[in-house]
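Margin note: ligand = coenzyme A.
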Amino acid sequence: MQDTITNETSTHSAVDGAVLTGRPVISSTGLFTPEESITNEELVESFNQYVNRYNTANAETIEAGEVEALTYSSVGFIEKASGIKARHVMSKAPILDPDIMSPRWDERSNDERSMMCEIGVTAALQALERAGRKPEDVDAVLCAASNMERPYPAMAIEIQQALGIEGFGFDMNVACSSATFGIQTAADYVRAGNAKSVLVVSPEITSGHLNWRDRDSHFIFGDVATAVLVEDEAIAPEAHWEILSTKLKTVFSNNIRNNFGFLNRAAPDSASNADKLFIQEGRKVFKEVVPMVAQMIIDEAKRLQMDPTTLRRLWLHQANAGMNRLIAQRVLGHEANDDESPTVLDTYGNTSSAGSIIAFHSHSDDLSAGDTGLICSFGAGYSAGTVFVRKTS
Ligand code: COA
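Resulting structure:
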């Protein structure tokens, strides 16, 4: 494809007039990490205080067999079952307060930047800076995340406005796969010649939908924001990542579910039940998603006539160290080391759609020109996305 974009967004830009190739690349990434972090020890101490209080307050009904006593959480279990040692959060103290166990902050006025916008902008600015890109050169902003702070106006449009980008923006939610679905969407705009530069921003404030009182899942999530700048090769900085292919897959499952939504008010009696936060059948997810994702990667590599065992690095979704170990083993044909399949799960926890992007952002500078790698996410839906990339220089 040979075309130039002549819409308003590029009239005064340094990339104006570039002969576009229709070949999408990743020009850069950005990352925002909240300052505060909760260790497993802190989390379990607070959870177990809550258990003691609950069991004391309900001693009589527990004794009578009418109410089930709560059970302690354990640091050893969390680390062994998930690989998570700590997670960053936007609001630590109230989460650890056994009387609250939820993030807390003042509601912002309509004139202030919303929280997802604020952290998304921080990650996006880093991505723009790393690519040497000016906001006026960007055509579109996608806010791709598992939860949106409000239905409208779109978070993406607020981020777009805050960055000074013209063009358009919209939100998309494919749970843990939002970022890779966003990358494919952005890449398709580039392939079709409808945009030359697209920001995919994933602000994940997962602490807002995690049930911190649920022993089975209270340790899973952390907060973060990432940004990926997808561009036409013609305008990309010299050091970039060619996007060799993008592939998406969805298969309906109730095993990871969140029933929070605008129709909850129609059934007020159950509007604050536990299913209005994240719930999952973790074992089933583990067993069903591992083979699905491994096969998807192998099939796509075959379609690309690539031997998957030659992939230099896998930047996998960061939900569970055991899942990643199994997927990497099936794809690479041997047990992967940290260099082949890096983890950020230990310090970030599961950051939903941002996880594989954090891994890519933090562990890609050392690769050499010509190295191929895979960004891969998977999660609720079920949904899975693969992005095969090759480093240019
Ligand atoms: N502390 C101590 N023990 C705990 C515990 C906790 N916080 N939570 C559960 N347990 C116990 C269970 O009660 C169970 O005990 P039992 O054997 O006596 O019945 C035992 O540990 C095993 O529980 P289980 O839920 O089967 O653990 P698991 O090994 O499957 O690990 C997950 C749980 C969630 C870490 C794991 O299933 C997982 O990561 N699955 C994939 C999740 C995923 O990717 N989700 C996507 C989210 S986007």
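Residues 73-74, 77-78, 81-82, 176, 215-216, 256, 280, 282-283, 285-286, 319-320, 323, 350, 379-380 surround coenzyme A (CB under 6 Å).
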